[in-house]
Amino acid sequence: MKQFTSLRFTSLRFTFHVLRFTFQNHSSLKHLLKPMKELQEILQEIQRLEKAGKRYAIATVVKVSGSTYRGPGARMLVSEDGSTVGNISGGCLESDVIANAKEVIATGKPRLVSYDTTAEEDIFWGTGLGCGGITHIFIEPQPLLQPFLKRVQQDIQHHQPVTAATVFEVQGELPITPGSRLMVEGDSVVLNTIP
Q: Quick one: 167 exposed, middle or buried, by C-beta within 10 A (0-12, 13-18, 19+)?
C-alpha cells in the first residue's frame, strides 16, 4: 500500500481519482451498497454490449466542489446508440455527457468535461442547474477500460478488495496520459498502465 500512497504525494503534475472497491456485505458499509449495485448493473450491460459487438464509454464523476447531485465515483455507461445505465447527476447533466461520450466513442480518446453552476448567470445562459457546484466528469472509451473492467469483474467474483487510481488530468510534458491506471490489492500492484 505504501507504493500507492506515495504516488498521491509526488510532485508530478497530474491529477487522479482514487476508488476503493470493497465487496463485503456489512451493515457499516450500507453507504457503499448503491454504488456497488450500480457498478454491477454497468458490468452486466458491458457484457451484453460486448457480446453484441457494440462500443461504449463510461463517464465517472472524478471531482466535485460545492453543491452537486452525485459525488466522486458516480458513473454512467453510455453505449454508441446513446442508451445509458447508471447516472452522474439528477438528470440535468446526462444529455450533454451522452453527447460527449458519443464523441469519445468515435475518437477513442478520453475526455474531461466540467460543469460549473456556481455563477448566477448560469441560470439564464448556462445549463440552468442552479446547484451552486462544480462537477468534473472523466469519460473513457471502451478500449482503455477493458483491462481495468476485466480485473474489477474478477475481484467482484472473488470478493477481493481493490484500490484503483485513474489519471484524469495531466499538466505539462509528462509520459502519463489521461486514462492511465494503477490497481492495488493489499500490497500488490495488479494493473499498472502508468509509465
A: buried
Q: How many domains does the chain have?
A: 1
For residue 40, the 8-state DSSP code is H
Per residue in 144-175, pLDDT tens? Answer: 777 777 887 777 777 777 777 788 787 777 77
Max alpha carbon distance in the chain (Å)? 51
The strand order across the sheet containing 181-185 reads: 14-21, 162-170, 181-185, 188-192
Range of the domain at 64: 2-192
- Residue 52 contacts residue 194 (beta carbons within 8 Å): no
Q: Is this prediction's pTM over 0.70?
A: yes
Distance, in Å, from the CA atom of 145 to the CA atom of 14, rounded to the nearest integer, reads: 19
C-alpha distance from residue 190 to each of 50, 85, 109, 182, 187 (Å) = 24, 27, 24, 8, 9
Q: What is the pLDDT of residues 65-91, one digit of tens each?
A: 887 888 888 899 999 999 999 998 877
